[in-house]
Amino acid sequence: MTTFRWFYNRLRSMSPAEVLFRTQQSVQKRRDRARMGWLPAVQLDKLPQPILPFDPAQLPPVPFLPEQPVFRHTIDITKPVDWHLDVSTGQRFPLSYAHDVDVRTGRSGSAKYAWEINRLLFLPQLAVQYRQTGDRYFLDQFVAATLSWQIENPYLTGLNWYSNIEVNIRLLNWFVSWNILDASALAAADPAFRDFVDTCWLPLIYQHCTYSRSNPSYFSSANNHLIAEYAGLFVAASFWQFPESAGWEAYARKGLETEIVRQHSAQGINREEAAEYIQFITDFFLLAQVVADRSGKPLSATYRNTFQQVLAYIAQFLDVRGTFPRYGDEDDGRVLMLEEYRPFNNFRSLLASGAILFGDPLMKQRAEESDRLGFDLKNYVLFGQAGRDAYEAVIPSNTLQGSKLYPREGHFIFRKQTRSAHQTQLTETYIHADAAPLGYLSIAAHGHADALSFMMHIDGCVFLADPGTYSYQTDPLWRNYFISTRAHNTVCIDGQNQARQAGAMLWLDQYKPLVLNSQSDEQVDELTATHNGYRSIRCQHTRSLRFEKDTDTLYIIDYVSNLGKQARQVEVMFHGGPAIQVQQNGQTFVLSHPDTTRQLTIAVDAALQTECITGQTEPAPLGWYSDGFYHRAPSPTLRTWLTLLPNQSITLRHRLVVGAPTLAPPVQQTNTINAYA
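^ thats the sequence. predicted structure below, dont judge the formating
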C-alpha cells in the first residue's frame, strides 16, 4: 500500500511530457536487460596525454591515509573491497539486474553506504602516492582495485549500475587518476600496465560513457544528478577519443552550459535549497571548466561568469570559521577526495580555486581564514605549479565582511564583524534567514520545510542551528523528523509541515514564500516575509527580523492568524547547536558554547509556555542534531507554544541578545486580536 501511495504521488508530480519520458525509460530498461554483462572491446589509436599539470617533484609530501571514511564507518583501502556490501549493517545487495535492485526500502541495506565506496574516491589518492614515492605497491593497489571492480560489477549487474550520478563520479575519478599517473607514459613503459589499460580500464571507461549518455536525469530529476552526468561525460569525452566522443562532448557541453544557468540564480545561488550540495555541485562545474580550458576549447563567457557568481555566493555565506548555514539536505557528498587533512573544508578549497581562476581578493581572504593553507592538494592536482603561482600573486583583501541580502532568492545574511587591536581573531555575529522556496522542480527532493527559519552563529560557533539531515530513504522516522518544519527555527502549527511530504524525497503542495520588505545598512538589517504553507488549515504566518548591530540584538516578531473554525497549537522553535549549554529562568534562556566567551540570551514572548527538550524520541523525535550523514546526537531545543483560538490573530515578540550573560527584562506584552476585527 505504501509503495502504491508513493507511486501515485510521484505521478502527481509529473507533467504529461514526463510521464511519456518515464514510459520510454521503462521500455528501454526492459530492453537493456539483454545487455547485462556486456564487455566492449575498446582500443584507442593513441592514449591521451595528461592535461592536468601534475608534477610530484613540486608537491610537498602527502600523507597516506589508508582508512577511507564511509559516513560513520571506515574501510581500509589497502584490503580487498566487497563492492556490494553495506558496511553499516553487514548486508549485501543482490547481483541482479541493476534496475531491479531495491535501493529505497533498506531491505538489502543502505545503498548510500555501498555507493560511497564505489565512487572510487580513493583511487586518485593511490595515484598520488605512487607518483610521489615511486613505490610499486600503490600502483598494484590501484590496478587490483580497478580489476576487482570490473570483475564484481558486470555491466548493468547490481546496485552500482543503478544510479547515473555514481557512474559519472567514477568517470571523473578515473580521469584525475589517469592524469596523476601519466597513464599513457606508464603504459608505454610497462607492458603489464598496458594490458590492464586495454583489457580493463578503457573498457570500463567506455561502458560508463555509454551508460551516462543513455540514462539522463530529465524533468523532475534534473537536479544535481543531471549536472554530474553532463560533467562526467564532458570530461571523459574531451579526454578519451572514442568513436562517439565528439557527439558525447557536444551533448554534454550544451547541457553544462544550460544547467549552470538554469540551476542557479543570477546571484549564483543554487536552486535546490541544499547548502552542502553547493560544494558538491560546484566541483562538477570546476572540473568541467578546467578540462575545457586545458583542452583549448573553453566554455562560454556566460558559463564562466555564472561560475564566478557561484563562488562569490560561497564567499558570502560562510561564517568566520568557514562554517556554512546548513539549510536543506546534506549527505557528505564529494566529487574528489584529494585532501591532506580531515575534516576537509571543500568550500574553502573552492574559494582558493576561485582566487586562481578569477584573481579575486575576497575569495583568497576567505580561503585562508584558518590554520590550513588555502592552496591545497586538490588545487595542486588541477592547476599545478602555475596555479600555485597565480594563487600567490593574488593579494587577499583584509576587510570586515558585512551583511548580504538576496531578496529575489530568499536568502538573507545578517552579519556584524569587529576586530580590536588586541584581538587575534574576528568576533562575528552571523545570522542566516530563509525566505526561499522549498526546493527545486516539482518534487523539491532535497528541500526541507523550513520557511522563515533562521540560524545564528557567534564567533563561528553554532548557537541556533538547522539540525541537519541524517538519512534519506532507509530511516523514515528520522528522515521525516529532520526535514520537518518542527525541526527548524520557525513557527509550526499543529505539528504540521508547511508542505505535504509524500515520500522521503518528494514534496507536494509546496508553499510559496513572499518577501514583503528587506533592507540593510551599517546599523540595521531587516526582513519581513510570509508564506502560504498553512493555507489548507486556514492559518497564516508572517515573520519580521530586525538585527540592530550596535547592541548585537535580533528582534523577532511572529504574526500568526487562525482563520479556521478550530483551535490550533502554535509552536515557536529554537534549536541549539550540538555543543550548546542552556540555562533557563522563566521566559529567558541563556545559551553558551565552550569555544567562545560570548553568550546568547533569548527572551521569548510572555504568552508562550516553554520547555527545553534534549534527545526526545517519544511521543515524537525532538532535540536532535545531525552533524553528518548517518550520525545524530542529542541537542537542546527550546520549545515554546500556545493555543490560538478560532478567528484570532496573535503577535509574538522575542529578543535575542549576543554578549555577556544577562537576564533580559520581559519583552513587550503579546497582542491577541480577533482575526476579523
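The chain has four domains: 1-33, 65-215, 220-399, 407-674.
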